[in-house]
Amino acid sequence: MIYDISRLLNANTPTWPGDTPFSYNLTWSQEETGSVNVGQITTSCHTATHVDAPFHFKDSGMTIEQLPLELFVGDALVVDVTTKGEITPKDFDGLDLSEVRRVLLKTETWTDDVFPEKIPIIHPDLGPFFLKHGIELLGVDLPSVDPLDSKTLDTHHSLLQNGVHILEGLTLTDVKPGMYRLTALPLKIEGADGSPVRAILEG
């Protein structure tokens, strides 16, 4: 079974306050061209379901086209943390992480088309914890892995320092905890700080 874990992109898609909203416009209609419809999109790189490149929060960090594609394809463990206001290494007690490279956190905090006012805290201690267990990708059903008002982005930096990449804006409502095969490939945009993705789970 395939689960589409991407948020819908349209004129109502929530965007980080002050960032570029998503829009799609028909540049040429079939009536005008005699053959095809041709549209254009405008969007922030961080709208809806997207990958953060390290360059997003560190000037010397890799840009989106430099990230290894194998990060975004392969087995992923969905972990249910829906009751948690703060997510720490203790929330992984009892889970076998020995074969896990990708973790997706299901918080169910952001389930509508309104940008959230508050999200759970993803503790920076997860960076070294994930490194210890060989985890290289963290996905969340949130617009950010840091508090919405954070300027220091401690969790972003902790994850980067420990070799963990970031996938944000997932929708995991219909997905039960467990192992799946993830595909969430970013676009090959030269020099970009992030990219929208079409993320799916198979399982």
Automatic annotation (TrEMBL):
Keyword Metal-binding included in the entry's annotation: yes
Cofactor(s) annotated in UniProt: Zn(2+)
Catalytic residues (positions): 56 (proton donor/acceptor)
SUPFAM superfamilies: Putative cyclase (SSF102198)
Binding residues for Zn(2+) 2: 52, 156, 168
Sequence positions that bind substrate: 16
Molecular function GO labels: arylformamidase activity
Function recorded in the entry: Catalyzes the hydrolysis of N-formyl-L-kynurenine to L-kynurenine, the second step in the kynurenine pathway of tryptophan degradation.
Family: Belongs to the Cyclase 1 superfamily. KynB family.
Subunit structure and binding partners: Homodimer.
HAMAP family the UniProt entry points to: KynB
Record's protein name: Kynurenine formamidase
